[in-house]
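Human: I would love a firmer grasp of how sequence relates to backbone shape in proteins. Take your time, and here it is.
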Amino acid sequence: MAVTQFEPAYARQCFPCWDEPSFKANFNITLLDVPSELVTLSNMPVDEEELNGNLKTVYYQESPVMSTYLVAVVIGLFDYIEDHTPDGIKVRVYSQVGKANQGKFALHVALKTLGFYKDYFQMPYSLPKLDMVAIPDFACGAMENYGLVTYREKDLLFDDHHSAAANKQRVATVVAHELAHQWFGNLVTMEWWTDLWLNEGFATWMSYMAKDKLFPEWKIWTQFFDHECSEGLRLDGLAKSHPIEVEVNHASEIDEIFDTISYKKGASIIQMLKGYVGGPHFQNSLATYIKRHAWSNARTNDLWAVLKEECNEPTIDKIMNSWTKQEGYPVLSVKMKNQTLEIKQSRFLYAGSHDRCRWIIPITYCCGDYDSLISLLMEKKSETYDIKDLLSNITDPARSWIKLNVEQIGFFRVKYDDGLAAKLRYAIEHKCLSVTDRLGILDDSFALCMARKMSLTSLLTFMAAYREELEHTVLSNLIKIIGKIERIVADARPELMNYINQFFIGLLLPAAANFGWDPKQGESHLDAMSRGDIFTALAVLGHEETINEANSRFNAFLNDRNTPLLHPDIRKAAYVAVMQKVTSSNKAGLASLLKVYRETDLSQEKIRILGSLASCPDESVVYEALNFALSSEVRKQDAVFVLAVSKEGREVAWKWLKNNWDKIWTTYGSGLLLNRFVGAIVSSFASSEKMKEIGMFFGNRTQASMVRTLKQSMEQIYINSKWVQTIRNDKDLAEAVKKLANK
C-alpha cells in the first residue's frame, strides 16, 4: 500500500508547490506506471485509465480549488463497500481484502453525517464522491484529505463480534470529525496555521453535534465535558500552554500545535460561545460564514465579523479575543456574604495563580433548582450579585445549594467557599444536581487539589459523596482522578497506600455490582462502556476478586475465542488483570496475551493488549513490554499504547527511554508520536531531582518540534513535586483516609 500524508507541510516533498494553506489551486492528478491489479484513489473520481501491459496510467478529474495539504493519493489492494446519499454522492469505505464488512458502521455514520452537515451549514457536500480508507499503519488518527479521507483501521473499522462499545463510539467520533472538515478546513480553510483552531476546534465540536443527532441515547454533550473541556482545562492550566491563536513562524513549529489547545479548548470555547449567543443564531452565523468564505481562506476575525452581524452582538470580538489571544483561563472564587455572591476571577495555574490576566466571562448560576437560572457577563476582576430574591424562595435545606457554570458550558473553574462547597456535597449525595454538574464539580475539585488550593483530605472526603454514582461520564472522570491520586500518594505517603486503595475500591464496588461482568438485556451504550472502565480500574487497584474472576474468564477465552464469558467490553479489564499476576519468574499470562496478539488481525484488539502489557507491577516485566513495543511485531503507530506504565514501572520506563532514545528519534523523527513518548514517561515524576536529571538528558537532544511538549512535561513534574510536599504536610490525611477506608 502507498499512502500520502501532506498535512501540515509535506506536499513540497512530493511536487513543487507553494505549500501554504492560503495558496489554493486546482489539481490535475495523473498516476503513471501503476501495477494494473492495484486500486488507485485520489481526491476526485477517475476520468480515464490507459492500460500498457501489466501497468496502467490513471487520470483523475480536475479538483476544485483547494490547499496543497489536502491533496492525496492511495494505491493498494482493497475491498470496499459503497452507498449513495439521497442527492447522489457516492460514498465508499475501503479496507484491506477480507475486512469490507467491518466498514458498514462507518458507512452508515458517513451517510447520515453528510446529510446532517448539509442541512446545518445550508451547503451541500462539494465533491462528487467521498472515499474513506482504513490504513494499517498511520501516524495520525485520521486525515481529512478532500474527498479521500484516510484513517487508522481502529478509527474506521468495527467488528460486530470483537469490537467494544467504546470502539463504536470512537469510529463515530472520528468519522464525524473528518467529515466536518470537508466544510471547516477544506471548503473554508484557515489562512495560516495560527488559526488552526478554526479547522480542528470546529471539527471537534461539530462531531458532537452529529453524534447527538445520530445517537441521542449516548448523552454525548455530557461526554463532551469529560473528553474535551476537562482535557482542555488540564493542559491550559500549565504556564507553558499557548494561546488558541498561536504564532507559527516556521514549518517545524506546526506539528506541536495539533494539540489539546487547538482541538479541545477550541471546541470548548465554541460551545461556550454557542451557549452565549443561542443555538439558532450560532447556526445561522456558521452557515453565513461558510457561504461567504467558500473556496477561500479565513481568519478568526472573519468568524467574529459574521457573528457580530448575525447575532447583533457588537462586542463578540472583544469577548472572544480574551479567550483566543491569551493563554490560560480563569478560576472564579465564589463567596456568599449577606445574601450576595462575591465573585473574583484570576488565572488558574496548577503552579500557582496570578492576577495579571482578565477574561470577559459568560456566567450562569442557579440556586436550589434549575428553574432559577441566571445568565450574565462578568467583565471586571471582581463583581457582586444580589441573590436575596432567589434565596427567599428556598425553604428546603436540600435546595439551599448554589451552582455556577450550569451544565459546565463555560471554560473556567469554580472555587466555592467552605459553606457553599458543603451544600453542594449534600446536593450531590441527594441526587439534586445534573450529571454534567456532578462531573464538573468533581473535576474542579481535583484540579484545585493539584493546585494546592484544596487539601487532599478535603478532596477524598468530597469524593466519598460519589459512592453510589452510576453515570458513565462521572465514573470515567472519577476513575481518572483515582489513578492520579494513586500515583501521587505513592510518592508522598506510601504508608497510606493500602488505606487509599481500600477507599477507592469501596467507591467503585457499588457500580461494579450494578453493571456486573455480563451484558444485560436492553442496557445502554453508556452502561456497556462503564462495565469495562470499572473492572479495569478495580484490577489496577489490586482487587483480588476482580483479578481472579477476570483471569478465569480470560482462560475460557484462550480455549474459545467466541466464548460469551469475555465480551469485548471487558477484554481490556481482563488483560490488565492478567498482567497483575505476571512476574519475572512467572510469565505465563504475558505469553498467553502475546499469543492472542499474534493471532488477531483486528487493530482494536491488538491495541487493547498493548495498552495492558506495561500495567504489570513487576519492573522487569514492564521493561520487557516496552522493548516489545519497539519490536517488528508492533506497528510504529501502536508503540505509544504500551506507554501506559504502572506506577511501579515509572523509573524503569525512564531508564528504557534513555537507553532507546536514539532508536526512537530515528524511527519517529519530529512527528506527533515522538512527543507521546516524551510526555507519557517524563510527566509522571514528582521530584526536583528528577527534573534536573531529565533536563540534563534532553539538554543536547531537544529538537524544535518537541520543545513545547518537553517544557510542559517538566512543568508537570514541578507541579507534582509541590503537590507531594503539600500532601506530606497534611496532618489530617492519615486519620481521614483510615476512616474513609473503613466505611
Remarks:
- The mean pLDDT is 94.
- Residues 707-728 form the longest helix (22 residues).
